[in-house]
């Protein structure tokens, strides 16, 4: 994780204009926006699902105790990205 990371999560940054958290991932040199979220943990979960999908299930990032209960429907977004 970069030294200047203020969200505390890989792939999550603060969008000043929207005043929300943005999740994004880089795949094959392409920056893919995963969505904008009120909660930074939700954005981190979405990023983690996309990272696992593309880089493998052993990616050691954004781990939470109650992750399963916090998840939202990001499956469609991950499926769309998968086609790239």
Describe this structure in words.
The protein is α+β, with helices and mostly antiparallel strands and 84 residues long. The chain has a single domain, classed as GCC-box Binding Domain. 33% of the residues lie in helices and 24% in strands. The chain has a 3-stranded antiparallel β-sheet with strand order 1-2-3, with helices on one face. A hairpin with a 2-residue loop joins β2 and β3 (30-37). α1 (40-55) runs parallel beside α3 (75-82). It is globular, with a radius of gyration of 12 Å.
Distance between the termini: 25 Å
Percent in strands: 15-25%
Regions with little confidence, pLDDT below 50 for 5+ residues: 65-73
Structurally, the number of domains stands at 1
The Cα radius of gyration reads: 12 Å
Please count the helical segments: 3
Count of beta strands = 3
Shape: globular
Structural class, please? alpha+beta
The appropriate CATH architecture is: 2-Layer Sandwich
* SSE arrangement, N to C: EEEHHH
The residue fraction in helices comes out at 25-40%
């Amino acid at each position: 994780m970069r030294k200047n990371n203020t969200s505390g999560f890989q792939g999550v940054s603060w969008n000043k204009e929207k005043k929300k958290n943005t999740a994004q991932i880089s795949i094959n040199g392409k920056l893919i926006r995963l969505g904008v979220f009120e909660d930074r943990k939700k954005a981190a979960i979405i990023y983690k699902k996309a990272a696992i999908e593309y880089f493998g299930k052993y990616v050691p990032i954004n781990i939470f105790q109650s992750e399963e209960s916090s998840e939202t429907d990001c499956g469609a977004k991950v499926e769309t990205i998968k086609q790239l």
